[in-house]
């Protein structure tokens, strides 16, 4: 089942002149909803608001409308995607400062968390598709230009849970739909996303909680050899929370104590 609203109207109609459609001129957030409320909504909203500020989009204050729509949907578990675009304009890149942003909210039933993954972990592949270093104005934004992820996702069917992306220098960046963590030599390590990639909400929760409970954390440059020497690997995103990885292109990993602790502390009762 699916619920759609465009600018708060009970309609799934959007102008063909919308700049999100024409140019990818906008941002989005994807949120798990539990019991009629979006998980980590303040953090998602803060990232959306900051992204709008950086792109010069006037972020509409639609927090009440969004949370009310999710509550009305009423499903015990759902996924909400909120898109904000610069608005609709005539042909051309230039737009008047007075253009009004558009927003689109879709709500669908949430996928079930695969509990078997807690025991053996998911299979992940290394993608051939590369991600480019972002313009500093775009680095870290969850903008609507997702072509590298679209191309990467074409590389596998459903035998893999996700695919890992690298940049042109061979550095690990992120998963196609997730952030990446490794455990090696007693430290929790995740790629530095200053130049490209999206700093996920759950990624930050994992870093904050790990530091609070005494796990050494490193936000650093990672290459494929780091995967070869990792003891544990897991992915994070806002729909599944933390997903243990059992294999990456034949490299095998155990679900060790760090992953198990973080699953218990951060995910149990929310994501599964």
From TrEMBL:
One record GO biological process: folic acid biosynthetic process
Superkingdom of this protein's organism: Bacteria
Top enzyme category: lyase
Keyword Lyase: yes
Entry keyword set: Folate biosynthesis, Lyase, Pyridoxal phosphate
Family: Belongs to the class-IV pyridoxal-phosphate-dependent aminotransferase family.
Descriptive protein name: aminodeoxychorismate lyase
């Amino acid at each position: 089942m699916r619920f759609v609203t465009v600018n708060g109207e009970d309609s799934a109609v959007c102008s063909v002149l919308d700049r999100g459609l024409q140019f990818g001129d906008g941002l989005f957030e994807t949120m798990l909803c539990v019991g009629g409320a979006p998980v980590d909504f303040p953090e998602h909203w803060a990232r959306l608001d900051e992204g709008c500020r950086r792109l010069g989009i006037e972020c509409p204050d639609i927090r009440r409308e969004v949370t009310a729509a999710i509550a009305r949907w009423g499903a015990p578990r759902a996924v909400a995607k909120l898109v904000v675009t610069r608005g609709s304009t005539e042909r051309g890149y230039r737009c008047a400062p007075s253009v009004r942003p558009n927003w689109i909210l879709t709500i669908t039933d949430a996928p079930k968390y695969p509990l078997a993954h807690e025991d053996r972990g998911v299979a992940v592949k290394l993608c051939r598709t590369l991600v480019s270093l972002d313009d500093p104005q775009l680095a870290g934004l969850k903008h609507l230009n997702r072509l590298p992820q679209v191309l990467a996702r074409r590389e596998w069917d459903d035998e893999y849970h996700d695919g890992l992306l690298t940049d042109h220098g061979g550095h690990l960046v992120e998963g196609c739909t997730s952030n990446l963590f490794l455990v090696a030599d007693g430290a929790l390590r995740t790629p530095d996303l200053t130049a490209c990639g999206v700093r996920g909400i759950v990624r930050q929760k994992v870093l904050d909680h790990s530091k609070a409970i005494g796990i050494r954390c490193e936000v650093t440059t990672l290459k494929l050899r780091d995967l070869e020497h990792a003891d544990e690997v897991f992915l994070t995103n806002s729909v599944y929370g933390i997903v243990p990885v059992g294999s990456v292109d034949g490299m095998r990993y155990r679900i060790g104590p760090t992953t198990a602790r973080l699953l218990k502390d951060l995910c149990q009762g929310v994501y599964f």
